[in-house]
């Protein structure tokens, strides 16, 4: 009796399936789409934490301290081509570019003109050991500040929400992609107000 009941149930399901083929097909497509979107979303969110630590080597980005009449400001200079956009404390003040192959820089923006020489001078030394902090801060937004503790020691303070062990391990693996000088340099990587640090040696 039970076997007959099961067979009757399967026959009824088969009949229903034939009469509702289009709805079943649409339901299957919708289910597959939602599952794929969910899985892609999870993958993207997992990658987000690690990708944020990767330096963007396709875009030049530097963070300088520029003296002004109202005190020093943080200048962020970015370029993915021939022109460099400049922001002072997050406010866009203009675009600059190099004239020909020489060292002369130019801009049409009045707010930027008084600082053109200072910025171009800092840009010219960005790949030296002395200018390395600006390149380091530009590549890694997790870095809050840098301070020289000696001729061969640079203290690097990262944000409180950044995992020190993960960041320093990643930095050790990737830092040579940014280095263009031969002198030795030690990076003391730490968080503000915390005595614990990780030492990253360069060259």
How much of the polypeptide forms β-strand, as a percent range?
Answer: 25-35%
Helix % is 25-40%
- What is the distance, rounded to the nearest whole angstrom, between the alpha carbons of the first and last residues? 83 Å
Count of β-strands: 9
Low-confidence stretches: 42-57
Could you give the order of strands across the largest sheet?
A: 1-2-3-4-5
Morphology call? extended
**Main beta sheet: strand number and arrangement?**
5 strands, antiparallel
Q: Structural class of the helix and strand makeup?
A: alpha+beta
**Rg, Cα atoms, Å:** 28 Å
**Average pLDDT score:** 79
The SSE order reads HHEEEEEHHEEHEE
Task: Give the helix tally.
Answer: 5
How would you describe this structure in keywords?
single chain; alpha+beta; 203 residues; 4-stranded mixed beta sheet; 5 helices
Question: What do you see in this structure?
Answer:
The chain is built from 5 helices and 9 strands. The chain has helices at residues 2-19, 21-51, 116-124, 132-139, 164-174, and strands spanning 60-66, 73-79, 83-88, 91-98, 105-106, 143-150, 153-158, 185-191, 197-202. The strands form 2 sheets. The chain has a 5-stranded antiparallel β-sheet with strand order 1-2-3-4-5. A 4-stranded mixed β-sheet has the order 6-7-8-9, with helices on one face. 17% of the residues are buried.
């Amino acid at each position: 009796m039970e076997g007959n009941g099961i067979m009757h149930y399967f026959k009824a399901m088969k009949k229903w399936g034939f009469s509702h083929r289009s709805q079943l097909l649409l339901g299957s497509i919708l289910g597959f789409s939602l599952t794929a979107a969910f899985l892609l979303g999870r993958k993207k969110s997992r990658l987000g934490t690690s990708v944020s630590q990767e330096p963007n080597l396709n875009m030049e980005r530097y963070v300088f301290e520029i003296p002004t009449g109202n005190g020093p400001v943080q200048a962020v200079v970015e370029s993915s081509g021939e022109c460099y956009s400049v922001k002072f404390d997050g406010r866009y003040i203009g675009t600059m570019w190099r004239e020909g192959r020489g060292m002369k820089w130019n801009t049409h923006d009045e707010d930027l003109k008084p600082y053109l020489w200072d910025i171009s001078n800092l840009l010219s030394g960005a790949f030296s050991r002395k200018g390395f902090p600006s390149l380091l801060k530009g590549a890694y937004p997790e870095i809050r500040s840098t301070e020289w503790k000696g001729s061969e020691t640079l203290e690097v303070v990262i944000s409180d929400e950044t995992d020190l062990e993960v960041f320093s391990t990643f930095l050790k693996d990737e830092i040579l992609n940014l280095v263009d000088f031969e002198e030795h340099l030690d990076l003391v990587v730490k968080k503000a107000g915390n005595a614990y640090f990780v030492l990253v040696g360069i060259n």
